Amino acid sequence: MDIIKVFESMSDWLIIQLNEHTSNIAIYLNDFERNFQQIEIELIQTEAILKNMRVKISGNVRQSVNKAIKLIEAVRHHRFDKDSVREVYFQLHLILEEGRQREEDMKWES
C-alpha cells in the first residue's frame, strides 16, 4: 500500500474523530451541569487526538491545534466551567474549518 494513502486515511480518521468529539462537546454544553463527566471524557479524548495531529501538520492549523491543547489543559486542570469549555469548542471548530480551507486550497493547487 502506498504510504501517502496510509497517511491520508489516518489523517481523515483523525479529522472524523475530532469532528465527532467537537459535536459531542456542543451537545453536552446544552446541559453542562448534568454532563460534566461526559465533557471531561470528551476533552481527554480530544486532547489525545490533537496531540497526534500536531506532529502531522504545519502552519496555521498547527498553531490552532497547539492553542486548543493549551486550552484543554487549562480547563481540565484549572478552570472547568461552561465558558471555558465553550472556548475550547470554538477553537476546535476553528481547527476543523481551517482544515477544510486547507483541503480546498490544495485542490486548487493540483
How are the secondary structure elements laid out?
Blueprint: H1 3-29, H2 36-54, H3 59-77, H4 82-109
Helix pairs in contact: 1-2, 1-4, 2-3, 3-4
Outline:
The protein has four helices and no strands.
Care to describe what's here?
α1 runs antiparallel to α4. The protein has one domain: Up-down Bundle (Four Helix Bundle (Hemerythrin (Met), subunit A)). By secondary structure, it is an all-alpha fold. Helices cover 85% and strands 0% of the residues.
CATH class term: Mainly Alpha
Order of helices and strands: HHHH
Mean pLDDT: 86
Oligomer: single chain
Structural class category: mainly alpha
Q: What is the makeup of the main sheet? A: none
Identify the overall geometry.
Answer: elongated
Question: What are its keywords?
Answer:
110 residues, mainly alpha, Four Helix Bundle (Hemerythrin (Met), subunit A), 4 helices, disordered N terminus
